[in-house]
Amino acid sequence: MPATESVQIEGEVSPGFEPVRAAFARNFAERGELGGACCIYRHGEKIVDLWGGVREEASGAPWRADTMVIVFSATKGMAAMVMALAHSRGWLDFDRKVAAYWPEFACYGKEKTTVRQLLAHQAGLAAFGEKVDRQAVADLDRLAEIMARQKPEWPPGSRVAYHAITLGFYEGELIRRVDPQHRTLGQVFQEEIAAPLGLDAYIRLPDSIPNERLAVLKPASIWKTFANFHLPLLAAALWPRSILFRALMVNPGTQVSMDAERIYARNLEVPSGGGVVSARGLAGAYSAFAGGGQTIGLKPETIAELMAPPVPSEHGFYDECLKGDVEYSLGFMRPCREWPFARHSSAFGTPGAGGALGYADPEDGIAYAYVTNRMGEKITADPRDAALRAALDDCLSIG
Description:
This protein has 13 helices and 16 strands. The protein has helices spanning about 20-30, 75-90, 115-120, 135-140, 140-150, 165-180, 185-195, 220-225, 230-240, 245-250, 280-290, 300-305, 385-399; strands spanning about 10-15, 35-40, 45-55, 60, 70, 200, 260, 265, 275, 320, 325, 330, 330-335, 350, 355-360, 365-370. The protein is globular and about 55 Å long.
């Protein structure tokens, strides 16, 4: 056991990937990790499966192999998987107008918005103008009416702004309309991806999951987090009329998926931020995509779409919400200067507030997931996740 190891590290790694285990142990000894897990597949084979620390600081309850935790915006990757599945099933064409599937959407300047533009955060719908609370989120018909009435900030395709919470709700309504069974996005994810693959992964967390399976978050210091903001981002975070504030802080805000009594909200779908998964569950889902998608019925042309270069808006990739260049495509984030991950630009995935990350790199056959319950303070790559990925990349470059 490495000298840097200050807690018991459980799990195993395949020969040649021992440096990932060492980096995981150093996260506890040197980077303040509380509890977390990392799982990596290569060509469908699990090569890293590690967990350690505690799932709840107050009780000291240990993190288990099947411990799940909310991953906030890393949920967007799970939702994007459902959109990809809809494409493969012929339910959805990325280049058709949203209104072709959702006629009520065609108003207030949204008439020409394509599915591709919506999934690339180019629809100008990053925030809701009307009140959206938990009751509205739970009433999908009411939520659909609110979304249909929403006026975009600018013409579709002209600019990028991170649809931090709203994207998943728009995706969810599209799925309800195109799925022959009219299931919700969370139901499709569960029935078509998670259950067939045997994954601990939920967009809609059921009542049957006991609290003992769930890790309790330790929030980051708000002041230390703000200290990591560059000036334009800090100004946006503090100004109630900014896109960032309206997209993240209100209507319904990032805390809509939390529950004081049951840790996380149950039977409530927040497809942009309410996913609850184990590292094994998130990596297992990405493994299906890294391997070509045959295990869940994806077509090669869908995988090719996901790997294709992202299409910029008329004003490029500058994100008016996050105040920097970020590349998005078909619901996923893509590797870029602000958010580097994987060894190939054709990789796709999504990070989550606090440090979580999941991605697929089909060129390497890699599916990666890192989850944690200590919320990190960095806006871009969390040092714990970055250390794990650096060790993984070094191992891949050698072997």
